[in-house]
Amino acid sequence: xxxxxxxxxRKQFSPRELLRRAVxxxxxxxxxxxxxxxxxxxxxxxxGVRARLQxxxxxxxxxxxxxxxxxxxxxxxxxxxxxxxxxxxIERAAREKYGLSRSGETVYRPAPAR
Length: 114
Known about the structure:
Layout (H helix, E strand, L loop, with lengths): L1 H4 L9 H10 L1 H19 L4 H37 L1 H12 L16
């Protein structure tokens, strides 16, 4: 009566028994080995998943560098336009870069930190 209501326990195979079965079923063994080799090439090959992930990471870092360079370029273009047209900006740049001052004006500079 117990056979009707309970599952039968599966037979546990030892590694030696599994190896023996694999040797007997040569077609399945060949398919598994070929599949493992193809999977290995797909993951670790020259155009595999690892190489793709590495290239995508490199692409993201280069895109970040490009965005940073573009923002710096825009800021420099704006500064150039200001220096071309704004007299006060020209005067400020001359004061900062060359230490120039107007006649009768006294310039105070802080002492360098020690």
